[in-house]
Amino acid sequence: METQNNSRRSFIKKAAIGTLAAISIPEILSAAVPKGGSKK
Question: What letters, b where the CB count within 10 A reaches 16 and e where it falls short, cover 10-20?
């Protein structure tokens, strides 16, 4: 039972890190690109 609980905890940790990355990456990109950026 110890390993099952451990893998669940690591999965939650990975999911939280993935969510944080998904949230922070667009913010970093939008901060790096000047307003009015080169998309158009």
Answer: eeeeeeeeeee
- The span from the CA of 37 to the CA of 30, in Å, is 9
The reported pTM is: 0.52
CA distance 17 to 15: 5
Give the pLDDT confidence of 10-26 residue by residue, as tens digits.
999 999 999 999 999 98
Q: Which amino acid is at 3?
A: T
Give dist(CA 20, CA 14) in Å, integer: 10
